[in-house]
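Work package 3, deliverable 3.1, input record:
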Amino acid sequence: MDCREAKRRMHEYLDGELDEREAGKLACHLRQCEPCSRHLGALEKTDAIIGSLRRLSCPEEVAERVLALMPSPRRSTAFIRLIRRHPGASAAILVFGLLVAGVAALWHPDDTLTVKTNDLDRLIVHGRQVIVPEGTTVNGDLIVENGDLQVDGEVRGNVIIFDGSVSASADHISGKVKQINQAFDRLVYRVENFVSHVSFSP
Amino acid sequence: MVDAIENRLAKLARAGDRGAFRELVGLYKDRLFNLAYRMLGSRHEAEEIVQETFLRVFANLDSYQAEKKFSTWIYRIAHNLCIDRMRRRRKTYSLDAELSDAEGLDGYAQMSADQSSPEDRLVLSETQRRVREAILELPDKYRAAIILKYMQDLSLNEIAEILDLPVSTVKTRVHRGREFLRQKLEDSGAV
């Protein structure tokens, strides 16, 4: 052990962290090294002096001033305190609640007959029935909500029916035919549609 | 065992129990006062730090988590307030120049030495005075580690949590602080 290492070990010794083996090596070095021996003596004295510094008492007025300055007890209910203690979880629950509300808004179960098409003037609407007359060609998609579709003419596009029926022979509709009756499917459709609208906008 | 009491008191205080908070003040006022006094060298400022620390604890009780140790929390607040105070001193005033007959004290340590009460001047032995001054000359980093270890009797792990440092860094600061103080005390003939 050289003097530099000895000095390091001295501090570990004073911290109470020197194991027996190292302590033995240090003791051996100290027996042979007068300067290091003196150094440890000085450190031990320093330790003792610092440790013996007076402990002062805080004046009583300080404590009294603190207690006087405290505002009157807040009457926060347990609920508000709960929110204060868990700001992250509270925020998450709030956001989730808004999300649910937003989803519920997408889902409007009214039962008005709705027809969406570019060629609305070509169609015949009779009560809850929507008819594509024979000889008429509808270009583009045709969407009917809360009604029954009868295709006697032609539809060059997709047909989507919400809560209704469709009757047509297979080759009168060139695109796909989708029938959506459940609220959930309708929701999925709307969400998918929204997404594809967004992604296709120029 | 003591820690458990403080944590329980803090939980009660958080729920609005003023008596519990009063008890915490009683438990910690002296400890905080000693910490601040040794860090800053001034009784007056130490009193302000104690006051400010308790007010902050009270204001932030809602965010106290019972799983954490209350002592770590309150010491950290007090320590940070002391550091802020020390930084502000240096910015506003330039009394850092050593005064010729003040044994290397910076202007502030000298000023605070003068602020000591009559009782201090009578009772303080020469050695006590020298070590008090030596501690005030310690660079800020080492001062906190030394005071927390020797005056507050905290373990190196607890100090590491309070200062938010690795234990190895705390050890180094304690060791360097010790060497610095040994040198000062040797120079003034105290050891």
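Chain A has seven helices and ten strands.
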